[in-house]
Amino acid sequence: MRRYDDPVEVRKGWVTGVEGPEQFLWRGRLWKVRAVLAHWVETGPWWQSSGVRAVLGSDDAASDAGESPGSRPLGDLLTEREMWRVEAGQGASTAVDGGGVFDLSFDWGDGRWQLVGCVD
Known about the structure:
Blueprint: E1 2-7, E2 9-15, E3 18-26, E4 29-43, H1 50-56, E5 80-89, E6 100-107, E7 112-119
């Protein structure tokens, strides 16, 4: 799987009985989702936050951006992104049309969709 970090526009809808990404626009091309292969939620790297380092007594906890220990909001520890692995193509048929399997992510913190992986 090739890795990307590209912003995409996503239209949600129902695909094979699952509500999720129905279409997405990536690099000027419209992709139609044929199937949702997997769906999961990933938690951000909470163990790297200054709040956790402050609790553990790490020396660099207060040095991050000049903040005092414990000043970072708890919300930073709970960041999540929703992941979708989908099969998509550029046409409505199931024939070979340059389709592939794509990993899309939705970041709840900033409300953005990203294409993070592709096998085509």
